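Retro notes
What went well: the complex prediction finally ran end to end.
Inputs used:
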Amino acid sequence: MTQSVNELMEQIGAQARKASTYIMQASDEQKSTALRFMAQRLLENADYLKTENAKDLENARNNNLEPALLDRLTLSDKAIHLMATGLNQIAAMADPVGSLSATRVLPNGINIAQMRVPLGVIGIIYESRPNVTIDAAALCLKSGNATILRGGSEAFHSNLALGNIIREGLAHAGLPETVVQVVSTTDRAAVGKLITMTEYVDVIIPRGGKNLIKRLSEEARVPLIKHLDGNCHIYIDQYADLEKAFQLALQAKTFRYGICGAMETLLVHAAIAQEVLPRLAQAYAEHQVELRGCEKTRTFIPDAKPATEEDWDTEYLGPILAIRVVDNLEQAIEHIARHSSGHTESIITERIHEATLFQRQVDSSSVYVNLPTIFADGFEYGLGAEIGISTNRLHTRGPVGLEGLTTYKWVLNGNGQLRK
Amino acid sequence: MTQSVNELMEQIGAQARKASTYIMQASDEQKSTALRFMAQRLLENADYLKTENAKDLENARNNNLEPALLDRLTLSDKAIHLMATGLNQIAAMADPVGSLSATRVLPNGINIAQMRVPLGVIGIIYESRPNVTIDAAALCLKSGNATILRGGSEAFHSNLALGNIIREGLAHAGLPETVVQVVSTTDRAAVGKLITMTEYVDVIIPRGGKNLIKRLSEEARVPLIKHLDGNCHIYIDQYADLEKAFQLALQAKTFRYGICGAMETLLVHAAIAQEVLPRLAQAYAEHQVELRGCEKTRTFIPDAKPATEEDWDTEYLGPILAIRVVDNLEQAIEHIARHSSGHTESIITERIHEATLFQRQVDSSSVYVNLPTIFADGFEYGLGAEIGISTNRLHTRGPVGLEGLTTYKWVLNGNGQLRK
């Protein structure tokens, strides 16, 4: 059995590598035509998609899947419309492939530039949400990459049905159907093979929980563009506009608890803690947010539970907030250096000196001034759409849009120059 | 024994991580002062360096090291001067850290940009040349990274002596001496530990032969910026200026046989093969270059040996050249797609159509028009200096200068905007 899964994945890999040489050269017109046709066929096939999805939902109910997961798994009319809208939006985006940057003329007259080119073959490994099948395939296709999609077994029928729609779009635009392949086995060995086929796969983008990503990080030989924790901080400086600070700190926690940009620890300068903390505590209480504070915090918010060392390192992804009162900016930066996961942090201050120091010294993928951390999102950054948020240091950092799915090659144009 | 090597490497790693937080924030003035002082101390300590180097040379002779390797290992006065000059050149380069790119104002008034920041901690693993100790340390320091250097055992005393000079420079500029650490053990287990300490090391740059790099690729958990083969091609199109083609093809092979940009296979359009090949064959014969050709090639160059399938895949790094006559541009591009290592290729043509098609379709890290492949070099690209040439697809491709040793963070400046 494992043997035949390996063979299947080898075949998929070889087909993807071959398809990537076609899609790398495809015109934007071809790629956009494929995406728009997929959008049309999604809407026309809503009943088919819901029928296939119903099989997954029934299995999920039989397996007593949690209601939240059932909700993510469901392909409602609304979900189908959102996917179609997303496809049309991505079709309309500017194609990065072939654009030149860093163009210069060298002293010997050679023209030099960097040309954007696709990464090649991208593997996407994801969990229950079937819409990832469409969103990820669309971004990879637009940026000229071949894609291998490996969704969760709980969305098996939904993903295959969406894969059929994708193939229709590719064929309609005259592109090879192997440009996007949905892995048609739920055998876990397929993942193990996918993340080690370095000859066929250039990068793996996992979309899922921490356990998935940790396991893949340990076993992969193919490079990952990965998202680990989002333990995000806001520091309210002594020179903050306190009304602004109140609004930002409130929204950063309560906008949506489950997103990676949600604030998990609030740091407050001692000089303004008395003005800030009781008012914030009341607002958080109205949202049923549980507060866990350091000793000083608890002098201002007596109801707060004592925070432990573990709290500073925790991404709650829920209605809990850790709060620490610090003596100065340096202590805030130190706290972040020790406990942050390097995702997104923000300082609230009106002073240039503190803002600049914070933004230069904090080594996270996004560092804000006077903004809530929940802006960490590809749409908000003007990237149009995102395939995820990278916590890597290399290649691409923060929200990853089309450009993060490309690399470059050097192009040099001469007229017979020789080396000296 | 292995236990204590692991402990040593853990200590070095922890110190490098700590030092990286200092050097990340250091001013260009501090970094350049350190580099210039190292240059001065190198020259003042030439006798000390040569004494330490003599110990390595004696060991090498006792171990019957090849003359070419002995040559690479030798720290002559000239080699010491070259290192000092290199340090002063790197000191004078523009510091990429802190510069902003992709700056925009978003519709909601938020200012967004990407700020260049150091990668963090870089491990360099290299073989016999001790000058890498200085060159690599200097580039990593200038770009704000902490560095762990692991040279070959045959250069042990030389590398430690150069490490002492580096420490003097760091101390002179008020920087922690742990910003650059030379690993003081020749135990091979140190390498195994270095390439798996993901908590302390952000990237490994190997400088050495293919065997070293293949072994590291298989065992590393830390990302590598690596250089594999340089199987480079020149294609002489039917619309080439034949005099230009002659000069370029001759220099691309004979400039220096051992460099990765040296041409290893020459592809020639059938329509001009008769005019091009006999003349080139005579010139190559004057340089004692052995020719291996396809059947058609041998009708024009009867002395050429028959080329085998293996020849198309071989990076000779020596006075051997494979030659194939092709029917058209498409066949040349196909040959390159199948056999190239993705390093550097060039087309010789006077026509825009052929030049554009070649440059768009060939998927190598550098693609030239009317230039010899030996331009693949950081100095020639205007990067000032290079730490190596990357054959990776991700992060950095082709010659790697200071910018390749950095990454970016997103910086957003707002005035209290909330998410909608």
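What we learned: The CA atoms of residues 231 and 315 of chain B lie 5 Å apart.
What to try next: split runs per interface for comparison.
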